[in-house]
Amino acid sequence: MLLTFEEFERFTPTRPTYALFGWPLGHTMSPDLHALLFDAAQMDADYIAVAVPPESLEQALCLARQKLKGLNLTIPHKKAVIPLLDAVDPSAFELHAVNTVQFDSGQAIGYNTDIFGFAASLEKDGVPLRDKKTLLLGYGGAAAVMGYHCAKAGAQLFITGRNLEKAARLCEQLLSSFPKAKIQACRKIPRDISLVINGTPLGMFPREDKKPLHFLPHKTEYVFDAIYNPPRTALLRMANEGHVRARNGIYMLVLQAAAAQTIWNGTQFEDAVYDQAARRVLAKMAVKRLHEKYHKQNIVLCGFMGSGKTTVGRKLARLTGLEHIDADVYLEQQSGKTIPQIFAEEGEQAFRDLETRYLRELCSKEGIVLSLGGGAVLRPENVRMIRKTGFLIHLDTPFFRIVKNLSGSSHRPLLDQSSNKLDETRRLYNERKHIYRRAADRSVRCIRLGELVDQLLESI
Q1: What pTM value is reported for the model?
Q2: Cβ contact 364:388 at 8 Å
Q3: Which terminus of the chain faces fewer neighbouring Cβ atoms within 10 Å, N or C?
Q4: Residue 154: helix, strand or coil by DSSP?
Q5: Which residues contact 162 (CB under 8 A, 6 or more apart)?
Q6: Alpha-carbon dihedral sign for residues 372, 458, 31, 319
Q7: 458's torsion region: left (phi>0), alpha (psi -120 to 50) or beta?
């Protein structure tokens, strides 16, 4: 639930309620994320987001003391809230940033949980920091948190950005906490940097073409980008092209939220909960981007027969909360005949005409994951219809996997008429693979189902 400040003034909680204050709050994932964590902890609680103008922060905090059990803060309130609190955790004080407030016995106590999320992300990927030459891009709140952890862990830290004076001030801030740390501001980036960490908003929706670096230092081993919208930024694509390990900010987002719930309620989570929540956030983000970036209503999967469109579609629907529809099943239900029957009695042309007819109905729906038949995109008319409301993704499944998936199938009319199914499968596969790629908005290729689903969500 997203409230204006005026609506929050009139708001009366009916059960334990927590909130996020920020200005503005157009793209927050916090209510969805905390709802997932409450479910995992079997807690009956609500989480709301409140758009609080900077000039109303003091009044909003007074109301929060009365109405809320706990509070998160984001831009521009992380620093401004500190003088309004009764106490501040030492690390949050040194960071000059509070993102979590605990209300305890009438006291409002400030913490910073972003640092836990960042530290856990690097730990999950097995990335050591001690003595590693680390490039920190940016000098704002997110960069300060990540720089603090890097300095504390013994990294050799180089801070850069468009304003070198601000980079130098962050150096001084970090050195005041860690006098013996190796930290310096730099305009020229050392060639032997091992780790690159982005704390700037460059590459964030809607300006996704921006990137904080034109190229990675040639010895880069790992890239971390705190941005999670989009999940695959221009910087991360650059890392992927260079076969450099990389991670976006979704896991950091999940861990900082979980740490906030630990502070509020003492809740402890299993690692599996973090992974599940991160995937759900990725799925929710995909739906959000589907609407806001692409102005589409549906996710549509195309690909060769046996490529896994139905299996992947069902899994996507479970994660995103959208309805799954298999186009072939829909056609059979509406026509009252099986596809092999239609082929046998009326021929392929009649089947294709029916397919177009029912695709027109399906494309008028909203909020679905649609798994197409293998030949649905062969007609340009169908592709045009699909792409009006749907984001079309091609499952570029390797041929050997398709053969394995089709090995037990006996309901493929185009193959059942052939004396050599393997040769006919290969011929059709080679004939159609370029058609799929040209028709689709994205093409995703991966052998393992779990990784394929993640890649598909990240591609949106």
Answers
A1: 0.89
A2: no
A3: N
A4: coil
A5: none
A6: positive
A7: alpha
| Strand pairing category for 133-137 and 195-198 | parallel
Residue type, 144: A
In this structure, the chain runs to a length of 460
- Of the candidates 305, 282, 286, 283, which has an alpha carbon nearest to the alpha carbon of residue 294? 286
Count how many Cα atoms sit within 13 Å of the Cα of residue 270 in the half-sphere of its side chain: 5
Residues annotated as catalytic (active site), given as ranges? 78
> For each of the chain's 460 residues, which pLDDT tens digit applies?
899 999 999 999 999 999 999 998 877 889 999 999 999 999 999 999 999 999 999 999 999 999 999 999 998 999 999 999 999 999 999 999 999 999 988 899 999 999 999 999 999 999 999 999 999 999 988 999 999 999 999 999 999 999 999 999 999 999 999 999 999 999 999 999 999 999 999 999 999 999 999 999 999 999 999 999 999 999 999 999 989 999 999 999 999 999 999 999 999 999 999 999 999 999 999 999 999 999 999 999 999 998 999 999 999 999 999 999 999 999 999 999 999 999 999 999 999 999 999 999 999 999 999 999 999 999 999 999 999 999 999 999 998 888 887 876 656 555 455 556 788 888 999 999 999 999 999 999 987 877 899 999 999 9
- Kindly report the number of other CB atoms within 10 A of residue 384's CB atom: 11
Residue 213 main-chain phi, psi, to 5 deg:
-135, 145
